[in-house]
Structure formats: structure tokens, C-alpha cells
Amino acid sequence: MAPLEPWEKALVDGDAFLATVHGKISCQECHQGLQAVDKETAHTDLIAAPSDDPEATCGACHPNLVAAAENSLHTTLGGYWTNLAERGVPENHPASQEMFDNHCDSCHASCGDCHVSRPSSVEGGLIDGHVFDAEPSMTNNCTACHGSRVGNEYMGKHEDLKADVHFRQGRMTCIDCHTGHEMHGTEPNCQDCHDGPETSQFAPEEHRYDGLQSPSCESCHATVTAGNDGILMHEQHDGTMSCQVCHSVSYTSCDNCHVSLSEETGNPIFTTDGSYLGFYIGKNPIKSYARPYTYVTVRHVPISSTSFDFYEVGLVSNFGGSETWVYTTPHNIQRNTPQTESCASCHGNPDIFLTADKVAPEELQANQDIIIDVVPSLPQ
Amino acid sequence: MAKRPRKFSVKVKYYQLLVLGALIVFAAVSCRASGQNAEATPELELTEAAVSAADTSRVTQAVEIAADEAEPEQVDQCLVCHTDQQALIDTADPVIVIESENSGEG
User: CB 3.0-4.6 Å disulfide test: which of A2, A190, A243, A257 passes with A217?
Assistant: First the structure.
């Protein structure tokens, strides 16, 4: 994604923006500042990103969305804390809080980061002349953050790997599957938005695979679930594996991430051992009613037992508390993949299974529920 | 002696009546003049309305100009600058290119 010029980041499309509902609101109502000709005075007490305080700004007209978004992973960053806590990183602890603020908190996404500008984590900048877009832009918003894995896989930016069929042939963007309901989070009480005879409540999501699959492949490919699409392999494997096991191709994994502050500039920095492409089938670590599969694709995340030692040695006090090879849903779906070529592509082929020899010795304990002990043999 | 005051009194009454009559006549004339002015006002308004209808735009312009002179329209300085590409270029802070100190893929 090419960076925006400084003037591009701040240029308002006077005709287009002022014709919209948001254009009827005075600039100062959201951004504060002063009415002055010179920039310095005009920018006194300026609030560049008003939606960082959504209740005071967006919430005035969109109270339901703002209330729901409080529970969104984009707001809570709950997935980080869930995974950190599983590995023994304490939440209410100065060192871990400082680490989190320096390295994780920039992933927070405000209303404006999706609907009017690029995310602040990529230095922001107005996308469409300050016109608010109900539907976020795939490249300017979604993959600005979710780029190194999802974006590169979906748009086919890895050499010799095709783009996801949904992008290549369907020209689908992120929001075609990931709805506003999913992105904004869910109101704790269904009846806050929907009429209904019963009161249902949802706890806030704790990580991205919490709760029902949303989206799920079956939402569109319903005939697969019904078992009447005429494809023998769908009937044969019948829910024992996630769709990606057969229809995904190589994707990236990373190793050994360490975070610190630069000695030179004081800025937060990270180092990793780089990323690599691979395809691995493991056992499902989060088997549930919503994800009943035995086999799923797994990806290595770059946590190490010393990842946060810059802040406090031993902050990851329970490295074995959670897998380092994790449930993943690669965004590079193809109808035909190496796995679909023949039964022998998978059955009896240890290369594509996460077997113990592919796992670092210090990570064996953490991944014991993922590692494939016996590779499925060819059916007789 | 007794008749003289009576004669004088009749004369005074005569003058009093004369003055009173003059006042009544004066008042009547004044009221009539005032009534004529009151009746003349609608005619004047009708005349102005006719002029207004005949030349509405000129009157409107005159009113607008008068309003402008009285209270200038508020100009939003935020929009003046932020809709002007050249102004934003001219006033932009210098770009400081910061080399990434990260290594590996994030």
C-alpha cells in the first residue's frame, strides 16, 4: 500500500463531503480547534481522530453501533489478552501493560479507522475526501492491518500462489463475508436491536474463533452441508475436517518474535526470524459444536518464551500453556489444490501433517494436542 | 347694582360658548385631516407592493446587500484550508522519513 502524501491525508472533498449528512456537522463539533487563518492557531487543542472517543462523537447518532462495538475484538483486543493470559502473562502488571501499550494497542481500530481514514497504525490519512464510507475499503482499511497474512494470501501476493478464488473470480472484498454485525461486535442483549420473545445474551468474544463461525463457508455453500452437491469427497469426509484442509494452499508462518524499545529512537520495535510458507494439517485445538472438525489447518505464531524479556524476564511464565501452532483459516481458497489431486495426497503422506518432527523441541509440550501422532492411511 | 353682574355673566357665557364652538370645529377639522392620512396609508402600501412586484429582484438584492453589510457570513476557516490542495501542500509539516527498525515480518 503506497503511503499517502501529507496533503492527501488531510484534503477534504468540499463538494462530496458537504453534500453528505456528516458534512452538515461543523468541523469543530468533532475536531475542536479554533477558527483561525494560521495553521498553528487553528490546530490549538485539535482532536485529529475524534472517534477515539466514540461515545462523545459517533455515539450521538449511532448509539447502538457504538454500544455494540465496546464488545468488538477491534475495540477490546481481547484476543491478545486471552492468548497472553494462557501463557502466564499477567494482565494487571506494569511490565506486561507497558509491553501491551507499546506493541499491541496500536491494533485497536476506531470507527474512523474503518469508515473515513486509513487506520492510525499505518499513519492514517483520509481515504475519500472525508466522506464516510459505510463499507470499508479492503485495501485502505482491512488489509492495511491484516496485510502480511490475510491480505497477501487473499490477493495472491506470494510468488507462485494464486489469489483466493473468491477474489480472483468472485471479485469479493472482505465485507462480502465479514459483515457489519461481525465487525461491530454484538450487543449483549439481542433485544436491544431485534424484537423477540426471549432474552438471549452473548458474552463478549475472547478471541477471533470464539462462538459460532462467522462467517462460515456453508453460509454460501449450503449444498455442501446438505450433502447433495454430488461431490463424493464432501460426503466421505463429512465434517471431519475444515474446508481449508482440502481447499487451502501454502500460507505464512512466523517464528521467534521479540519486542523492545529502540536504543536509538526509543520507538517500539520487533524482530522476528522471518516468515515462511507451508501447509500443515493438525488436530483441532478448539473442537466445539461450532467447529467440530478433527483435522484443521494450523499456522505457527511467533511467540517464544523470551518474547517479552525486554520488559521483564520471565513474563511468559507458562509458555506451554497454549499452542504455538494454532487453528487458522488461510484466505487463499482454491477449488483445486494439491490435496484434492488424489487420496494419496493426504492419506499416508506425512509431509502435510504437523508431526512431532516439525515442532521445535521446546514447543512439543505446548502443541501436544495439535501434533498428529498417526498419519491417516489410505483407505482399503 | 344687582343687575350688572348678571349682564356681565351673560356676556361671559356667550364668549365661553363661542370658544367652545371654535374648539369643536378645530377638533373636527383635525380629526378629519387625521382620518384622511389614515386612509392614505393603504394607498401608499399598495403603491409600494406594486413597485415590489414589478421589481422584486432589485429589492431582494438591496435587502441582501444591506444584510451583508450588517452581518458578514461566517466562513469556516477549517474548510477554507482543508479543501485547498495547494494550501495544504504549502503548510504541510516537512516529511521526516523514519527508517523502520523492525526486522522480519510483523
Answer: A243
